[in-house]
Structures are given as C-alpha cells and as structure tokens.
C-alpha cells in the first residue's frame, strides 16, 4: 500500500470515529433533555404528585380522560378544585389505613387548602397531627374548627384532651363548662372533665362528673377506680373501698368473659 493511500484510509477512519462520537453525544444530550423535561413536568405542582396521587386521580376522574395515558398526565392539572379535593381526601384515607399519618398530613393539608371551611378535612388533619405527635399544631387546627363551628363537640373534646395531655390544665379547665353544657350525657367527656377538675383541685366537681359518668356507663373500670382515688383524697375511705370493690368485680367479669 502506497503512503498516499494509507493517509486517505487513516483520514476516513478518523471521520468515521468522529461521526460515531457526535451521534453518541447527541443521544446523551437528548436523554438529558428528556429527563429534564420529565422532571419539570413532575414538579409542576407541590407537594404530592406521587404515584398514589395519580392512581387515585385515575380512579376518580378517569372518565374525563379520552386520549389515553399521555393526555391524562398532561391534563391532570385541569381537574376542578372540588374533584382535586376528593382525590386528596382519598389519598389521605389510603395513608391513614396504612398507619402512615405523617404522609397523610401532606394530603390533608392540600385538601384543607382547597376547602378551607370543610371542618371534616380540618378534623382529619388535626387527628393525623395528633397521631404523629404534633400536638400544638393539632390544637391550632381544632381551634380553627371551633371558630367555623362553635358547636363541634368532637373538636372541643379533642382540644381539651390535648391540653390535658400537655399538662396545660388551666387551659383545659377553660373548656370544661362548655364541654359539660354541650356533652352532658357523654361519659368520656365527663371523665375528661373529672380528670381536669381533679388536677385543678376541684375535687367535688370531679367526683360529681365521675358519678354521672358511672350512671351512664356502669361497666367502665377506670371511672370507678378514679372515683375511688378521689374519695381517698377527701378522706371518704368507705366510699373509696366500695369503688375499689366494684373495680375488682368488673375485672373478674372481664377475666371470666375471656
């Protein structure tokens, strides 16, 4: 092979190599652009564009999507706020069932944001916060519920209970009269009232609340037990003994039922 032919062949080989590298570079760049495009689409809305969100969206509003999966992903953000609220409600229920309360909080926040006067959404948000140990934020949400619906007994009870749990007995005591007025036949509310009064040294009121709780639900052991403790505090030992005897009877009955 002449030297001239060898040079031509080497040049052709180098050109072929350059073409291959250029093609590979274009392919890599295209992949990066596609990846960026997908990432941008994924982060159009915050915070919950998870697979679960899309799954629930597909189940609930899929009938509106007529052009297949691509149209679904492109059109998901055109869902009406009321429908989107239902999706977040469904997602939060999904997490609640799995005991994933922290994850449920994100969806519940979005639901409450879309429907700020929906006390059911707010109550579930406060419940998820409570189960996640976020007590102070939960109290704030319960307060918001009570502003929207002052007669909401469940929110009033839950808020009072959280104050008690935080050992903020004076704040819990502020709700006692209202709780007693609105839930006079609820034994658990009466029990909470009794425990709050007890911590604030209002023993007579605590005793009366527990006696009424026992009238409504005679078989609850903790009512008799705590009433016995209260009687002991005021020196009524005979009454305390009767309460503790009843506790033992109920415990025996529970054992026999097992």
From TrEMBL:
Residues 162-220 form a coiled coil. Transmembrane segments: none annotated. TPR repeats lie at residues 119-152, 187-220, 221-254. Residues 1-43 are annotated as: Disordered. It holds the Pfam family ANAPC3. Residues 1-27 have a biased composition (Basic and acidic residues). Keywords: Coiled coil, Repeat, TPR repeat. This is Magnetosome protein MamA (Modular protein). It comes from uncultured Desulfobacteraceae bacterium.
């Amino acid at each position: 092979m002449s030297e001239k032919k060898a040079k031509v062949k080497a040049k052709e080989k180098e050109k072929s190599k350059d073409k291959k590298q250029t093609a590979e570079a274009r392919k890599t760049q295209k992949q990066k652009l596609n990846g960026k495009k997908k990432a941008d689409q994924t982060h159009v809305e915050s915070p919950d564009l998870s697979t679960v969100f899309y799954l629930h969206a597909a189940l609930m509003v899929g009938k509106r999507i007529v052009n297949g999966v691509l149209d679904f992903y492109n059109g998901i953000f055109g869902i009406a706020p009321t429908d989107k609220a239902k999706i977040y409600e469904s997602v939060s229920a999904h997490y609640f069932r799995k005991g994933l309360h922290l994850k449920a909080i994100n969806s519940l926040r979005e639901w409450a944001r879309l429907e700020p006067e929906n006390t059911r959404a707010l109550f579930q948000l406060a419940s998820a916060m409570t189960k996640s140990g976020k007590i102070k934020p939960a109290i704030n949400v319960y307060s918001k519920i009570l502003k929207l619906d002052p007669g909401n007994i469940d929110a009033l009870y839950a808020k009072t209970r959280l104050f008690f749990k935080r050992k903020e007995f004076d704040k819990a005591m502020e709700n006692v009269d209202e709780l007693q007025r609105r839930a006079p036949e609820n034994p658990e509310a009466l029990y909470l009232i009794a425990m709050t009064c007890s911590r604030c040294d209002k023993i007579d009121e605590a005793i009366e609340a527990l006696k009424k709780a026992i009238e409504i639900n005679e078989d609850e052991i903790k009512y008799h037990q705590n009433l016995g403790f209260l009687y002991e505090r005021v020196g009524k030992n005979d009454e305390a003994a009767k309460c503790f005897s009843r506790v033992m009877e109920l415990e025996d009955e529970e054992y026999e039922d097992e």
